[in-house]
Structure formats: structure tokens, C-alpha cells
Fold each of these.
Amino acid sequence: MQDVVEGALATILRFPVKLTVAGRTDAGVHAAGQVAHADVPTAAWIEFSPSLLRRLAGVLPADVRVIAVGPPPVGFDARFAALSRRYAYRVADTTWGVDPLRRRDTLHWPRPLDVDLMRPAAAGLLGEHDFATYCRRRAGATTLRTLLRLDWERDAHGILVARVEADSFCHTMVRSLIGALMDVGAGLRAPSWPSDLLATAMRDPRVTVAPARGLTLVSVAYPDSAALAERVRHTRRRRTARTIGR
């Protein structure tokens, strides 16, 4: 998605544009609430901003939309100013399958899942941990994260929806957590198994990475404008300390 929007902006503005996004998504993952910023010369902003949304709608593919643009508050950084990222994962374990209108963002699971087993398993993962078990490690990157929310519920149509929120996520972390919890819901693992794996501090091949289709980046939370610059400094310091400390 990022490169598609960058290309569209370059076509309209007639110079290369580099976006900084709040959260990178794996191939096939949806983003309904992505946030990004870019450095644009003042003269170009004055010239193109009144018609930018309309122009973007004309050059972007049908499955990508930019719904708002504007000058950011002083100190804003789409990535480092974020307080948290929120995701939703949709699973249909219904015998009749997936609603055709939601087939692109909902995973069909062929076996019944017990949400009463999945909820305590999810609760055991909350807090700050080394999530190396659930991440594909990248050189020089830490796998320490603070998981703020991870819970499951069934909607009015019986679809299981996981709500996941953290200060940030490492590569494949959300889908790996979902895969482990679905194994619990299917009766293949004990409810304590996902949290027990945290102690290994290394990628576990028994953890299944859930398919990308069911996952959507829902929103990104930011502090008030007055706290943006401090949040950026705090995030940069914390990530540096986490990486050095590993």
C-alpha cells in the first residue's frame, strides 16, 4: 500500500515522495486506519492541497483510498508519535462459511473454536514481554513489546473477532498470536500454552502464523498535540534502549 500511495503522490506532485507510516503491514493484511506523513515543500502544498484528495482518487487503484490530508501539528511523526496500534482479526468457524460481502477480510476456519478457552489464554499474554516466540526476528531489532489488549468476542452473526492493541508490533506478531490462540480454541493446546512459550524467548516452530486475510489495522492512537514531541523522544529513547539491552 505504501509504495502505491507514494507513486500516486509522485504522479500528482511531479517529484518523489517518501511516506512514513504508523505501522507496516504484512502482504495481504488490510489497513482501514493507517496514518502516514511526508515532507512536502510549502509551495507544492499550497498548489495541490485543495484538489489532492480528488486527484488521488483518480489515480489510486480501487482497493486503496486516502480519506483525509492536512498539515500535521508541530512535532508529529506518524511512526514514533503513536501511543498504540489497534488490530482486529475476524474468524468464521460457522458451518456455512463466510459472508460473501466479508470474504476478503474474514478467515474461514473449518473446526469449531471455543472462545471460553481462548479468552484466558489471551489474557495470559498481556503486559510487557519478550515476544520473540511470536516474531520473525530482524537484525538489530528488539522483540520486547507491551501488549495492551488481546480479547475475543462473537459478533451478532457468530463471527469471532479478536481485538489486539500494543505500543507496537514486530514482524508477524499479531498473526502468530492469533494462530496460537486458535490452536487453543480448537482444543489442540492448553490455555496456558501461549503464555508458557514466552519463556523460550525464541521463535517456536509449533506456532502457526494465521493467514493474512483476517487481519486489519483498525486505528492508531496519538497523544494531544502538546505531547507529540515528547512522545517521539520517548519512543526513540525506549527503542534504542531496548535494542541495546538485548
Amino acid sequence: MLSELEKEFETTTKLLFGTAFSSIEHYGPWLLRHVPASYPVPSAKSGKEVWVPPPLNYMRKRFNRSKIISFDEMEQVSISPFKPEDLNGATLNDLRTKFVKPIAYYCGNFRYGEHSNVEQSSGAGAGINLFQCEDVYLDVKNIGYSNYALYCENMFGCHGISHSKYGIHIYNSTNVTRCFEVDGCSNSSDLYFCHNCEGMSNGILCFNAKNLRYAVGNMEVGPEKFMRIKKMLVERIVHELKEKKSLNTDIFNVGVHK
């Protein structure tokens, strides 16, 4: 585990909950609850650990384990053993089965651009401190247990995000800051359990709303009442996370949880 990422997980949880959580790996299964996760297999060439994309990314199928190599092993399979004359009289089916299939490999551990401190990630790059990631690129920093993130910082357990920072369990959202359990939101900050919100700040349990401030259940309640309700919510979140290393309620089931 990256020590730098551990520190930033503490920073992010402190911002969201007023309490810093340590040992991020203990929360790994919870962070990945709704995130298509990459997984490790041994390289067909060296036996080294190679992380590959989740089945969701490729017709919900896993790759043939005997045809997987690491990004840094590509040169070992880049030269064809065939000669031009071998193609004489070949049919289209021959091209696929005799010439392409034997030399076709999937490359895991893919890295892009300048990067540092990237671990257990199937596809990542152009950033620093990335752990258990897939499709995480372009000016990314301190991202863990996430799938598809661009131009983001300090995001954990997220899927389909861009231009966002300091969030946990953010999905299909852009330009959100200090948010927790948010889906389909944009240009907003300090949201908890919100869906399809835009231009919001300080919202709890808001859905299909725009341009609200200090709102609970789509009703603006003012700073004082909002902070009182937020305190009660955060206390419950902290208690359950510390006790179970998980939270039963999330943005996808909050409407049916008691």
C-alpha cells in the first residue's frame, strides 16, 4: 500500500467526517462496493503479477489467463514468427486462427504518460499515488479503488468522475468537491447522499435539485439547522465505519433503508 495515499485518505475522511480514518485497506471491500474492480493474474511470459480490467469493460468477459502479459513485457511478443510467404493461399479464417490468435496477447499493468507510485492498477498514468485503479489518467493524484477518473484528486471508491476532489463513493459526476455518496451530480460541493443535483452547496438527501444552499430533502433549511442535521448524520456514519469498516446505506439504497 502506498504510504502517501494512506495519508491522503486520512485527510479526505477528516474533511468529510471530522475524523481521520487510517488503514485504508481495511475499507477496501466497502470502497469497491459499486466500482468495477481490476484483478490480478500471472503473466503468461514471466509469472509476475499483472492487473487487468474488470469484465464490465470487455463484454463482461474475463481474458484468457494464458494470453495475458504485462505492459513492460510487450517486446517479448511484438515480433511475428511468420514470414510473408506463409500467407500464400490463406483464407480469412486462417488469418484469424493460424496467424493472429497464436500471437495475440492482452497487455495489463498499462501505464500512460509520466507517473509515479502506481500499484495494483490495470490502467493508469499521468499522475501520482494511484492504487487499485482502472482507466485513471490525466493529472490525477491520490486515487484509490476507482474506475474511470480524469483530472481528479483525493478520490476513493469512485466510478465515472472528472474534475473532482476530496470525495468518497462518487459516481457519474463532474466538478464536485468534498462529497460523499453522490451520483449524477455536477458543479457542487459538500453533498451527502445526493443524486442528480447541479450547482448545489451543502446538501443532504437531495434529488433532482438545482442551485440550493443548506438543503435537506430538497428544502433549504438554513446554515444552523443544516449543520445540526449534518452532525447527527456524520456521527452515525463514523460510528458504523469504525465498527464495521463498512456502511450499509449508500446512494443506491438510501431510499429503502430504515
Amino acid sequence: MDTRQASQPLTDLELLKIEAERSMDDRYRLSGTCGVKISSTRDGQLLFVGSEVPDTFVPALIDAVDRSPLAPAPDREPPALAACREILEPACAPLSVNAGPTYLIEPHVRAERRTGIARSDGFPSERLRHLNPGNWEPDEWDDLLDGALGPWAMAVAEGRVVSICHTPRSMTKQAAECGVWTHPDYRGRGYAAEVTATWADILRASGRCLFYSTDAQNVSSQRVAARLRLRLIGWTWNLARADPGQRDNRHPLSRRSS
């Protein structure tokens, strides 16, 4: 952990850099990506280059971002994105863009306390073994409950798991990011906020920076961030080769994915 955190808060750009580093390979490139990510705040922007981008393209991408002005606001497309697209198209076409806000879950974040919240550091989870909501493979669900996929919190109501906050990607020494799912019939009732706050409570003692990110189109997820009063630190803009194949939604740490 950056020792400055104890005395001097990290800037939004520094936080976005820590968030992005969870996806980096040994060359400090975005693993498995033919494209770039631009992390944007009101005060600056950062470029991260994918591992599948030819090395000869990298200087031009860096120069394009350095020369481009900031967007009027982080949620507006950075002018550098168009320049990066022109550079990348010969190697990474077809390209697509997706973007969304990134939030920091600060230590004071709390949610309404409910009964029926199970947590990975709590009592044995055997009673949840038969409550797979259906969007996890059976072995993947076992891995989750056994702690192999990182910390989690679940809301149980009316005999079913109705909301889950888990750790969808590997944690680093500095950072962890949550992923949240809520059954459509139970949305808008505060369950997502509660499991997110519980997940953060589990990890708070680790000293990691805790992140919550979502897509621009995911209004319900942004409402959860608003409900918890999460701190918006910026937006990330991903310009990368569109994947025509079916996306593998399994957790990367699950046994069958390794």
C-alpha cells in the first residue's frame, strides 16, 4: 500500500491507476486486450495499452494522448479516443467503445443493516449450498462458497439468494473491486447496497483501495452507488477489438477456468 495514504490522500488519477493495475500483465500492459483504456478525471487522463497491441504502435498512442486536450468532463468522450482509434484500426479492428464511472468505497460507507446477510468471513456457508440463484455453474458456486474466489456477501430472502456482492477478479496488494448482482424481482429494495457495504466491511481491515465500477448504461448500478454515497473518482473509456465470440462469464479463478 502507498505509505502516503496514511498522511496524504491519493488523487483521483492515482486511484484510477491503482484500479487499472489489477488488469496488468508483467509488461504493464492490459492483459489479453487489443486496444487501450483511457482513465479520465477533471484534472488529467491516463493511458493504458493492451498486451495485444503491436509494440511499434505504443509511442504513437502515447503521443496522441499527450497531445490531446482533456474532455470537458470525465463522462464526456476524451478527444484522445478518436486519435487512438485511427492508430489502432490496422491491428485491432473492428473496434468498439464502452465506458462507465468508477467509484471509491470509502471507510465510512455503511448501509441499512438487515437480517439474512451472509458473509464469507462469517458462519459456515453450507446452508447456501443449495441456493445457487442459477447464474453460477455448480462447481463455480462451490468455489465461491469455499472462499476460492475471494470475499463475498449475500442477501437471503424468502428462502433464496436475492443479491450477491463478490470479487470478480483477482485482488492485488493495493486494490479490490466488487461485482454486484440482484435478482430482478428484488431490485430497488436496498439489497445491492447492503451486500456491497458488507463486502467492503469484510475487506476494510486489509487496507486496500476498494472500487465499484459500472457501465454508462447501467442506471440501476449507478443508483446503488448514489444510495451508498460512493465517491466518484472518474470514468474509464475502453477502446478495444470487439469480441464476436461468446463471452466467458465464469470467474477467472474458478477451477475450470484455470
